[in-house]
Amino acid sequence: MEKKNDIVVILVHGAWSDGQMFIKLLPLLHKGGVKVRVVQNPLSGLEDDIKKTNEMIERQEGRVLLVGHSYGGAVISGAGNHEKVCGLLYLCSFIPDKGENLQSQIDKHEKLETYLNFIPDKNCNIWFNYEKFHEFMYQDFNDYESHLCICFSQRPVSKRIFTDILQCEPAWKFKPTWCQISDNDRMIPPLLLKSMAKRANPIKELSLNCGHCPQLTNPIEISEFILDALCFLKQK
User: How far apart are CA 156 and CA 125, in angstroms?
Assistant: First the structure.
């Protein structure tokens, strides 16, 4: 039975994806007795996605630990200001400051080949090249069936997720924060991940020798990382 004082873990996915990105992590957290919820964001713009995440936060009775992956890191940086949020955990994430957007962060570093696989459509949306999805999103993920489901059910993103500016002070300035970095990330330059994490001054930083989706390729390590964060927060 769930207790009102339990800390709820809310998982926030990134671009071109949905809750399937946590398919390997969810069972481990659930088995560990963690109450987990997954946001299905519209990917229509940063403010839209922050609003949707806040709606999920509002539904919880107790405190919340937000876990954001990739673009989801920008989302939790804003949504994390909700009074129920007690901590933030970033997985290979963008960690913007007030007045920044994804594009401004990307422009600070040499662009990766991955950006050549962005395919715009006439509706101002951007798709990711299906044929290159595995190579760049998670080159070390070996579950072929899960890959097919994730890849071919990808959701397009609005161009706005790259250009929308974070309008508020980010929650990582005021609340306990944890950061995970992947040394072989092909979606976000590892040097950018490291510089953003350093600025966020995390309680703990976890580096893994993997690609952009550690929750798929290294779910045990990520579940332990989340459990450690929960243990810290429950002592507060």
Answer: 6
* CB-count burial class (<10 Å; 0-12, 13-18, 19+) for 112: middle
Mean pLDDT of the chain: 95
DSSP letters along 153-215, please? T---EETHHHHPPP-S--GGGTS-EEEEEETT-SSS-HHHHHHHHHHH--SEEEEESS-S-HH
Q: How many CB atoms lie within 10 A of CB 162?
A: 19
- In sequence order, the 6+-apart residues with CB closer than 8 A to the CB of 219 are 24, 25, 28
pTM: 0.96
| Contacts for 209 with CB less than 8 Å, ≥ 6 apart | 182, 183, 184
What is the sign, positive or negative, of the torsion defined by CA atoms of 35, 179, 159, 162?
positive
pLDDT of residue 184: 97
What sign does the CA torsion over 104, 79, 18, 40 have? negative
Cβ pair 101, 45 in contact under 8 A: no
pLDDT in tens, 210-228: 999 999 999 999 999 999 9
The DSSP line for 89-109 is EEES---PPTT--HHHHHTTS
Give, as one character, the DSSP assignment of residue 112: P
Kindly report the length of the chain: 236
Q: Are 69 and 50 in contact (CB under 8 A)?
A: no
Q: What end-to-end distance do the CA atoms of the chain give, in Å?
A: 22
Stated as kind and residue range, the H or E segment containing 231 is helix 219-234
Nearest of 144, 115, 120 to residue 132 by alpha carbon: 115
